[in-house]
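Practice problem: predict the structure.
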Amino acid sequence: MYAYRAEDFTASLPAADYIARFRDAERFAGCCRACGNYGRSWGCPPFDYEVAELLGRYREVWIVATKITPAVEGLPLAVSQELIRPERIRLEGRLRELERRYGGRSCAYVGECLYCPPGTCSRPEGKPCRHPELVRPSLEAYGFDIGRTLAELFGIELKWGRDGRMPEYLTLVCGFFHNASDADFH
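Answer:
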């Protein structure tokens, strides 16, 4: 395991404002359709529900950006999941706890599913998800611009790897749509 530092940054805003400012469903639907996971993972589109209708039920959204900075620069991109996985487990557990406490809907899934071994999702076989209580689509899958979210809400630039190497830091962005007026996210 590689050493790293993880920092969480949070923002809370009206859901309608976040949707209006940061959601471009058509643009990101095209990106999703170009991905090999499109229709092959329960965390990816197309969905059997209307995303705008689902999100429109909520008054507020809490966004978390986690910046993961490796202790060593220039690590191979192939090891990025070793840094991301423990943070995803932590964040997804936190989001599911918020759902239990306040209702609402989390957006957490980033990249491969954590709950089934790679290549074993039941969706391509036309079978139901084995872990519907755990899997949550990402903000990207719902049409949100993560680069813009990071830049405008947190002042963080979305970085990409180059030449098979990780960037100086990785970022995970997740959210919790809710109607709770007394929610405590810390």
